[in-house]
Design brief:
With 334 residues, the protein is an alpha/beta fold. It is built from ten helices and twelve strands.
C-alpha cells in the first residue's frame, strides 16, 4: 500500500510539473493551443498580375502577411460572385475582407450585418458602418499632375482619357481634366469610355485608336489588365504619349509611357490591418492622398528630357501645394 501511494504521488507531481513548465515562450507565458491566426482576404475585379490596380492591392496584401504575420488569401470576384466570396471568407473565420474597388462597397454593407466579427473594407466607396467601410485613394491628385503635363506638352491641343464608366474612374478623369485646364484653359479633352465589364483588352485598343483619330497626342488610362492594349495602340500610331495609372508603369517596353499616376498601397493596407488585428477599427471612409505618401506622380526618367523645364517647375509647385492642402484637387463624392 505504501509503495502504491508513493507511486501515485510521484505521477501526480510529474503531471503538475509537466503542465506548469511545458512550452513556455521567452516571456515565460504559455501560448494557447487554440489561438487563431489573423486572417485577411482580398477580392479583386481582375488578375493580380495586371501590373496596375489589382497588382498594387496584392502587394498590400503581401505586406500585411509580412508585417503582421497574417494568413492571407485572394481571389477574383465580380458581380454575383462578390457576395458569395465575402460570405465564404467570413464563415471561414477571416478577420478582414478587402474588396478592391468601388463595386464592393455596397455589397459589404449587406454582408457585414450577418458577420459582426469580420471587418469588410473596400478600397473605394462612400458607405460605412460598425464593421465595414472604405479607404479611398485620392488618385485624382496624381491624375491632376498628369493633366498638367499633357496640356503643357500637347502639340495638337487635344488630350484624352480611356477607361470604364464607373464613378471612381470618372472622378480620376475629372482630376486629369482639371490639371490640363489649369495649364491650358483651351485644351480639348476627349473621353473614351469602355463598356462594362471592361475585361476585353481589344476594347481598350479600339477606344485608344478612336481618341488618337480625334488628334489626341497624350492619353491617360484606367484599363486594369487592358493597359498594354492602350500602350500598344499609342506606339503603333506614333507621335503619342501615354500615362501609366495606379502602378508605376514607366518601364513598360512600349517606350511611350511618359509618366505614371501612382498609388503607394502598402502603408494604407498595413495600417488598416493593424487596426483590425488590435481591435481598434471603427467603420469609416478614409481619404488617403499625397500628404500621407499614398499618391505620387512619377516622370519616366528616360523621357525626362522631353519635358520643358518651366512645365516641370509648375508641376513641382502644384505637387507641393497639394501636399500642404493649398491646392485641393476636385473629386466626385459617391
Amino acid at each position: 500500500m505504501v509503495k502504491r501511494s508513493c507511486l501515485l504521488t510521484i505521477l501526480v507531481l510529474a503531471s503538475v510539473l509537466g503542465c506548469s513548465g511545458a512550452e513556455k515562450d521567452t516571456n515565460g507565458s504559455t501560448p494557447s493551443a487554440n489561438s487563431a491566426p489573423f486572417k485577411v482576404a482580398l477580392l479583386t475585379p481582375g488578375p493580380v498580375s495586371d501590373a496596375g490596380w489589382n497588382a498594387l492591392a496584392y502587394e498590400g496584401l503581401v505586406a500585411i502577411k509580412d508585417e503582421l504575420d497574417a494568413e492571407i488569401n485572394n481571389q477574383e470576384a465580380t458581380d454575383a460572385q462578390i457576395r458569395d466570396a465575402m460570405r465564404t471568407y467570413a464563415q471561414d473565420g477571416y478577420n478582414l475582407v478587402i474588396g478592391h474597388g468601388y463595386e464592393y462597397n455596397q455589397v459589404e454593407e449587406e454582408v457585414a450585418k450577418d458577420f459582426p466579427k469580420t471587418v469588410f473594407v473596400s478600397s473605394s466607396g462612400g458607405l460605412s458602418g460598425p464593421n465595414y467601410g472604405a479607404f479611398r485613394f485620392y488618385l485624382e491628385q496624381g491624375f491632376y499632375l498628369a493633366g498638367m503635363m499633357a496640356a503643357g506638352m500637347s502639340k495638337t491641343g487635344v488630350v484624352a482619357t480611356v477607361g470604364l464608366d464607373v464613378p471612381s474612374i470618372v472622378s480620376t478623369f475629372k482630376g486629369f481634366e482639371a490639371g490640363a485646364k489649369a495649364v491650358n484653359p483651351n485644351i480639348k479633352i476627349v473621353r473614351k469610355m469602355v463598356p462594362l465589364p471592361g475585361n476585353d483588352p481589344a476594347a481598350y485598343k479600339q477606344a485608344t485608336m478612336a481618341a488618337i483619330a480625334e488628334k489626341a497626342d497624350f492619353i491617360i488610362h484606367q484599363a486594369n489588365q487592358g493597359y498594354q492594349s492602350v500602350f500598344n495602340a499609342a506606339k503603333e500610331k506614333g507621335g503619342v504619349y501615354v500615362f501609366g495609372s495606379n502602378a508605376d508603369q514607366n518601364a513598360n517596353s512600349s517606350d511611350v509611357v511618359i509618366g505614371s499616376a501612382v498609388i503607394v498601397s502598402k502603408p494604407a493596407f498595413i495600417e488598416l490591418a493593424r487596426e483590425v488585428k488590435e481591435g481598434t477599427y471603427k467603420g469609416s471612409v478614409k481619404l488617403i492622398g499625397m500628404d500621407k505618401g499614398a499618391i505620387d506622380f512619377v516622370v519616366n526618367p528616360k523621357l525626362l528630357d522631353k519635358v520643358p523645364a518651366d512645365l516641370m517647375k509648375k508641376m513641382d509647385q502644384a505637387k507641393a501645394d497639394i501636399v500642404t492642402g493649398k491646392l485641393v484637387v476636385p473629386k466626385d463624392e459617391f
